[in-house]
């Protein structure tokens, strides 16, 4: 997305540039789009995908990459089997570029808050369970105390949220650090364990059983989160450990709304966070026409944490919400 009309101009004009560090790069024509391009390449691992993000053609993106390498006098990426990978120079440049773009976003946020007289905005990402039990009460509290604050919440899997956090699309997240990301990039404060359960429609054949075992489950359709997500993996581990065949008919979706719709309209089974299941079951509309199965096994997921990026200070409004969520998590802790 274009920030200003002068996006294709050098990051700074020549006038007064002698007083700035990095004058060589600026005089050589470093542009904001160069910074966006290297960050997009790092995120998507393909020049074509980065071109789509910047809404330019692939040849234009390739020329931009050549421009960057000429300006920096270093190779920034190399071709691999499924796209491109950043070199050490490329990773260093991408890290600094991301910081500059983040600071520009914070300038925009701060000035917008000053102009409007509001209290600023917060970008929070969360996995399902703490979104219900922690984020919602904290948001209600901060909104009542500071009516000008705008809170933007995204509920997704940890894999998605952690990458959005690194890309500065979230201020902080309530999630888990994915196994394929370097944990040293993050500040992590563990705040709770997510418990899950199995939901079915009211009147489902399994609701007639007082206790449901794993062997009762494979014969039904299932609605799972995408492959590789923690809840999906945990359910599969339970089946494998008990020697029970995995379900053969599966719909994959990260949407709790679609999950609920499928469950209510069929004999499908779905694993969901228990807090979410209780919330849905208490709703009086059709979306609430579900039952929670009483199983002879527990579904406990890896603990979730408050996560921010190391070296990136939270804006005041985000720090306020962060502290309220942390405070509430300690109130709910059995310890």
Helix fraction by DSSP (H/I, runs of at least 4): 40-55%
Beta strand count: 13
Per DSSP, what share of the residues sits in E-state strands of 2 or more residues? 15-25%
N-C termini distance: 47 Å
* Largest beta sheet: strand ordering: 4-3-5-13-6
Largest sheet: 5 strands, mixed
- Structural class designation: alpha/beta
In quaternary terms, these chains amount to: single chain
- Overall mean pLDDT stands at 84
Radius of gyration: 24 Å
What does the overall shape look like?
A: globular
Tally of contiguous helical segments: 11
How do the helices and strands follow one another from N- to C-terminus?
Answer: HHHHEEHEHEHEEEEHEHEHEEEH
Low-confidence stretches: 1-10, 12-21
Write the layout of secondary structure elements.
Elements: H1 23-27, H2 32-44, H3 47-54, H4 58-72, E1 77-80, E2 83-86, H5 88-116, E3 121-126, H6 128-145, E4 150-155, H7 158-166, E5 172-175, E6 186-192, E7 195-201, E8 222-224, H8 230-241, E9 250-252, H9 256-264, E10 270-273, H10 274-282, E11 290-292, E12 299-300, E13 304-309, H11 316-332
Parallel strand pairs: 3-4, 3-5, 8-9
Antiparallel strand pairs: 1-2, 5-13, 6-13, 7-10, 7-11, 7-12
Helix pairs in contact: 2-3, 2-4, 2-5, 3-4, 6-10, 6-11
């Amino acid at each position: 997305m274009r920030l200003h009309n002068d996006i294709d101009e050098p990051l700074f004009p020549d006038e007064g540039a002698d007083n700035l560090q990095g004058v060589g790069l600026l005089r050589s024509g470093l542009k904001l789009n160069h910074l966006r391009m290297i960050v997009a390449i790092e995120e998507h691992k393909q020049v074509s995908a980065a071109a789509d993000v910047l809404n330019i053609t692939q040849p234009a993106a390739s020329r931009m990459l050549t421009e960057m390498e000429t300006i920096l006098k270093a190779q920034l990426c190399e071709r691999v089997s499924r796209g491109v990978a950043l070199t050490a120079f490329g990773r260093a440049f991408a890290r600094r570029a991301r910081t500059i773009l983040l600071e520009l976003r914070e300038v925009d946020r701060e000035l917008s808050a000053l102009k409007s007289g509001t209290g600023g905005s917060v970008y929070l990402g969360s996995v399902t369970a703490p979104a219900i039990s922690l984020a919602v009460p904290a948001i209600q509290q901060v909104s009542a105390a500071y009516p000008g604050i705008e809170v933007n919440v995204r509920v997704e899997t940890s894999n998605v949220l952690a990458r959005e956090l690194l890309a500065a699309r979230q201020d902080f997240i309530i999630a888990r650090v994915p196994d394929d990301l370097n944990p040293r990039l993050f500040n992590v404060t563990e705040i709770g364990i997510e418990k899950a359960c199995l939901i079915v429609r009211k009147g489902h054949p399994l609701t007639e059983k007082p206790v449901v075992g794993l062997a009762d489950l494979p014969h039904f359709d299932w609605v799972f989160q995408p492959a590789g997500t923690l809840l999906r993996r945990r359910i599969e581990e339970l089946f494998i450990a008990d020697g029970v065949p995995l379900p053969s008919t599966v719909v994959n979706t990260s949407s709790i709304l679609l999950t609920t719709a499928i469950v209510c309209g069929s004999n499908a089974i779905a694993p969901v966070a228990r807090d979410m299941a209780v919330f849905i079951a208490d709703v009086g509309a059709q979306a609430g026409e579900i039952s929670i199965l009483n199983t002879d096994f527990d579904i406990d997921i890896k603990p979730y944490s408050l996560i921010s990026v190391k070296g990136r200070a939270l804006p005041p409004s985000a720090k306020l919400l962060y502290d309220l969520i942390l405070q509430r998590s300690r109130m709910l802790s059995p310890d």
